[in-house]
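Structure representation:
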Amino acid sequence: MRVLLVYPKYPDTFWSFKTVLKYISKKAAFPPLGLLTVAAMLPSDWEQRLVDVNVEELKDADLAWADMVCVSGMLIQQASAIEIIDRAKAMGKIVVGGGPLFNVRWESFSSVDHFVLNEAEVTLPLFLDDLANGRPQRVYRSDVRPDIALTPIPAWHLINMKHYVTMSVQYSRGCPFNCEFCDIIIMNGRVPRMKSPTQMLAELESLRQAGWRGSVFVVDDNFIGNTKTVKLMLPELIAWQKKHHYPFHFLTEASTNLADDEELMRLMSAANFYKVFLGIETPEVDSLKECGKYQNVSRNLASSVKTIQRHGMQVMAGFIVGFDHDSESTFETQIRFIQQVGIVTAMVGMLNAVPHTKLWERLHSEDRLLADSTGENTDGSLNFIPKMGKEQLISGYQYIISQIYSTRNYYERICVFLENYTHTARTHLTPTDIMALVKSMVRIGIFSPRNVAYWRMLIKTLLTNTRALPVVVEMMISGEHFLRVKKRILAATNTPPLRDPETQTPA
């Protein structure tokens, strides 16, 4: 059997970092970890190829070679997935779909032959068994939450690591919290399941042996979902990092209660975690209660962010507008919070009702759903009727984006960040880093309207906090990406134009 695994294209979003890629000669931010893991579960005598459409073209010759085409992706990759499926079917290929996109929308893909849904450790063996016996079913589903000790090391040999900024690994699945808008607990449950320290280190060693050095994204829904177990794993990771002279620096996703645990922050910093993404959502207490984000309600969110930053971890954060309790003042409140706390990477989106979440069920019962979710929460499309009114919400959202990603406000946030941040990450200067610095000096320092702000920030960092220079350069380069995303967001709707702080003319 010849199987072709295909990963669809991502549109240009906050997470794509497409502008940044040009500075470091990479083609995509992250590899398709799900497909690489599934590939390792397939029969050893099957021939395999993987095409990530984000880094290379899917050629007709690839499709012609294959007996079976396996497609996996997220909701936001749907348009590209449809194109891939249509091309494969036009060439008479068996098409198999799996992953988050198909989990919630498999009924919409009439041309897909088989769906292997939910967690592959359970459903993939069932499909492979039936296929071997000549009686494959169309849909394989299961509510079983498998022990991820069964999960194999990803098939790294199927990709060219040089194409990617960051490699990805998974330590746990599931999140103990129950946010109304989130589909994590639908996919992976509320009881976190972890890999053993031995299993985790074996996976990291496989990356090291494959030649990877640098950034590794621990893609967990909530890395600290089970703090007791994480604290048992981290000392072993620290010892492994020391033994191998810190080949990796890590970023991950967590919850704000990380700031409550001094020991956990110290261990993560010692293990070389340098970035953490938090779901802050909003500083509005009533909106937090509405969406069930109680872990953020009874705390000083600004203090939590600063505490984590002082432990050497840059805080990236997600924010949402469009809750029923949001008001006209919410937009200014979001801007003020983001600026005062110094969250440089602030990914703000409009509320989106993903199928089968508690939010989706509630809005359905209130007859407020308008359409299926596209997974895109920045393009001005709403799939529900907001309480404050569609035009007001979109206009307010545009206003937030226009403000926080103006040059002045963005560079001010870098300054605020540096006031709180303690640089602890152990990183190794590479030719890629030097190339990125030189390109930034030319592209931003000379040819960009932000050249004055760039040189001021560069010189200030050199004089006051030299160790943080790589972080600051990365932030200034990332700012070029966020500017591009801002322009797309401001152009995406037909709502009355805002005044763009870059030009003081209508956006």
